[in-house]
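Priority: medium. Attachment 1 of 2:
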């Protein structure tokens, strides 16, 4: 089964184990083979990718732009590089620079290729295009089933 992800990039580190366990619980109930499709953003996307890999699934990465890695903070590079190296497929959209347009395009590509969306989302309405709530709205509009994951321990940095 092909599963996509959207979620907050600003999860507090203390909640990561609970979020990963909640994602793993959802994924464990799904059909095999399991393929997780992600933009590999820090936070929820990377937690999802790790959960997919730990369950023996494959990860496919859709990168929004050529400079995507360059936009990450130095402390985010090691995990990004590790998960990207573990991916079976990495596609890069033809945008030169990361930004709303590139993120929207990457999310559209991801949604078009999956059977279900896992949303690590606190339920706060969309603040603009390309964010978690916007992707949830797009999934609803296109008929992609959504499973929201937000365990009681989940928190975002302000």
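Attachment 2 of 2:
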């Amino acid at each position: 089964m092909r599963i996509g992800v959207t979620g907050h990039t600003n999860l507090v580190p203390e909640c990561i184990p609970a979020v990963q366990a909640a994602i793993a619980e959802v994924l464990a109930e799904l059909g095999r083979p399991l393929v997780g499709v992600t933009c590999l953003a820090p936070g929820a996307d990377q937690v999802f990718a790790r959960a997919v890999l730990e369950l023996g699934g494959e990860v496919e990465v859709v990168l929004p732009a050529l400079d995507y890695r360059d936009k990450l903070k130095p402390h985010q590079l090691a995990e990004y590089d590790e998960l990207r190296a573990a991916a079976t497929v990495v596609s890069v959209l033809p945008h030169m620079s990361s930004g709303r347009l590139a993120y929207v395009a990457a999310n559209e590509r991801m949604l078009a290729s999956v059977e279900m969306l896992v949303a690590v989302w606190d339920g706060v309405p969309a603040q603009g295009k390309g964010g978690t709530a916007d992707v949830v709205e797009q999934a609803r509009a296109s008929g992609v089933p959504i499973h929201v994951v937000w365990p009681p321990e989940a928190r975002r940095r302000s």
